[in-house]
Amino acid sequence: MMSAGLVLACSLPGCASNPGPASTPAQPEAAAQCHAEAVQARVGQMAAPDQLEALRQQASASVLRVIKPGDAVTMDYNITRLNLEVDETGVIKRVSCG
Length: 98
Prior knowledge:
The protein is α+β, with helices and mostly antiparallel strands. Helices cover 16% and strands 17% of the residues. A hairpin with a 5-residue loop joins strand 2 (81-86) and strand 3 (92-97).
């Protein structure tokens, strides 16, 4: 008698195991993406602290990361981040997004 009650209880919709459709992660809008090509002409120039915010804005990036020689950096890819790789003197050697 008890097993019949258990079978009946598990036939209710709450006991069903249906995960539903797989959700896809939200993609940042194209406008929020970094555009390193917009600041590519700055390679070979100083990464002056008072110019960094302007560079970030020109690249439409939400985050700016200045990478100096020997700096430890995370390997995560951030589509909205502008990376400026500089040499020991602060000259921009490479610009990229990620």
